[in-house]
Amino acid sequence: MHPVFLTVLQRVFLGFITLIVVSILIFGSIEMLPGDFGEAILGQSATKETVAAFRRELGLDQPAYIRYLNWIGNALTGDFGNSFSGRNASGIDRSRTVVDLLDQRLYNTLFLAAMTTLIAVPIALFLGITAALYRDTIYDRLVNSVTLTTIATPEFFVAYILILLFASLWGFFPSLGNVDPRDTLDVRIYKTSLPALTMALVTIAHMLRMTRAAIINLLASPYIEQARLKGVSSVQIILWHALPNAWAPIATVIAFNLAYMVVGVVVVEVVFVYPGVGQLMVDAVRTRDIPVVQACALIFAATYILLNLIADVIGIVTNPRLLHPR
Amino acid sequence: MIEKFETYSAKAEVSNVRKRRTRWERIWLDLKKAPPTAIFGIVIIILYAFTAIFAPLLAPYGEADSQFQSYMRWGEDGHVFGTDQIGRDILSRLIYGARNTIGIALITTILSFLIGGGLGLIAAINRSILDQLLSRGVDVLMAIPGLIFALMLLSIFGANVLNLIIIMAILDSTRVFRLTRAVALNVVVMDYVEAAHLRGEKIGWIMRREILPNILPPLVAEFGLRFCFVFLSIAALSFLGVGIQPPTSDWGTMVREMASLIQFAKYDLLGAMTPLLPAACIALLTISVNFVVDWFLHKTSGIRDEK
Q: What is the Cα–Cα distance from A288 to A34, expressed in whole angstroms?
């Protein structure tokens, strides 16, 4: 077997193990919950029978490892149980399944992420490469200080400035991203534009800095110097000589930033009241709706781990030094 | 250079008594050479610290003093930035917010350095099964995005300041652990550490007197960056409504409470900027700390030169 394939296999296996441990952690943290959910959720006036039935439904009469296996098994088949909201002391169950809550929201969040990526990646690559090319000029300094500022500011600051300018004052875009399943694609894009722009601004800053660093690193290598001494134009050096070797770090940068968006999406969705998974999670945290929190945390963590894994694998596969072992 | 050789004389060299500069003189010399961005950062940080420490003296009204009319405009009735939705003076809340927000972030960062730094040093010196256990545990914790994990834990343990500090400190200590362990590993193999071992010094002494002084510069820089990160995370959590709880004023919560004002920018532009004030306070501080850390790293080593 090819050694690169083995390395990749090893990474995938490690990622899988991490995912299992993380899911145990997410499940296990509920065990630390002080007291009993039964009364806490149903209220003081719930009868003993109702509480007992609720406990049985949650499986609290079984040992923890069986509940974990049940939970993770159901999660893998797309069943995250029922939400806590909608339960009451009378025992009538008006709760919805977590999957029902997640369904449309997951699509919305993915739509937002896709739109952000489409805006951010080309701009970040272009600016990063040109900044590396015109290094230490005013242009480079400007790009650098702007990105440093964007990185160091909270997402909601960027978001509210955009709202103030583009929504309140000039009225180009709506300030709320309240997309609806019935919206046509153009309406949806129009409504998603400000949230996507906010996320794009923050991720562009990260990607740009890392791209610039990767290219500058490459430009210092001897074969670039050789090309320059031959009299090749600087644009050609970047496009023909530097870029092919820079794809690996750049691909890694993009994957890392997609992973970073997992965190950014929570705040941005809340600012724009965008009906996505992030907002669902924050609402669930406020009302202590544990099954929903668990499901969201698992989804976010799995995405994060998966994207980081992809970044790692791309880094390994595109590294020519690993393809020809000594 | 040639001029120097011409003016050189043994007598001058001998008679020139080398005076050791005091610590303050050295700091002053460094400061004079600092770039304008770093000076700017230092001035801002000192201003913030001053505001945070003397908040009760500087604030014109009380932190939770809601005796005024709600939603006053800027400058109306002596309220520089107006009042909020239940009639509290916004300037006063901004000033008290400095104390609460920065204070809590600072305590969290210090705690995370105590946990992460301590364990990192022990892991680096010990290098046994304990090191393996800690490192793998940190790997797992770092595989979950921090904000998501914090949200989950806060929903379980309940959102209050103490839980917030502990949870953020533990989550953040993972990164401190990694850095401390990595830099300490290079120092642990040095001969003088071995000598201390053979001398029979205890692990506490070795940590404090032999290793710590040698790994301090990267840790100090990391402290600044971690502080920024914790500060932003806590502001984000408060903004989401699960961090610092009212009536304690903090900048993240203030942004959320007054966000609706932004809709009225066409009628009252200044009023619409009110929610941006606390957000700008957060941004200004993190940018300043970043400037200072950049300069410090540049000065102490070249490790961040090309990034």
A: 13
| Encoded tokens for A262 | 């997992």
Cross-chain residue pair B236–A156, CB shorter than 8 Å? yes
* Three-class secondary structure assignment of A41-73: HHCCCCCHHHHHHHHHHHCCCCCHHHHHHHHHH
CA distance A133 to A236: 11
Spatial neighbors of B298 by CB under 8 A, at least 6 apart, are B304, B305
> Which chain B residues touch A151 with a CB distance below 8 Å?
290
Q: Determine the average pLDDT of the residues in A45-51.
A: 70
Minimum-distance CB partner of A157 among B241, B280, B306: B280
Residue A193's nearest CA partner among A219, A167, A164, A212 is A167
Contacts with B143 from chain A: Cβ below 8 Å: 18, 22, 301, 304-305, 308
- Output B165 or A234, whichever has higher pLDDT: B165
Comparing C-alpha atoms, which of A101, A90, A25 is closest to residue A53?
A: A90
- ipTM exceeding 0.90? no
**Do B263 and A175 count as a contact with CB atoms less than 8 A apart?**
yes
Q: Is B246 left (phi over 0), alpha (psi -120 to 50) or beta?
A: beta
Closest residue in chain A to residue B262, using alpha carbons only? A164
Tell me what pLDDT residue A33 has: 64
Residue with tokens 């104390």: B99
Task: Give the span between the Cα atoms of B94 and B102, in whole angstroms.
Answer: 12
> If we measure between CA atoms, which residue out of A269, A284, A45 comes closest to residue A159?
A269
Q: Quote the CA–CA distance of B252 and B94 in Å, as a whole number.
A: 11
Residues of B in contact with A284 (CB under 8 A): 155
Chain-wide mean pLDDT for chain A? Answer: 80
This prediction has a pTM of 0.82
Q: Closest by alpha carbon to B186, among B306, B301, B307?
A: B301
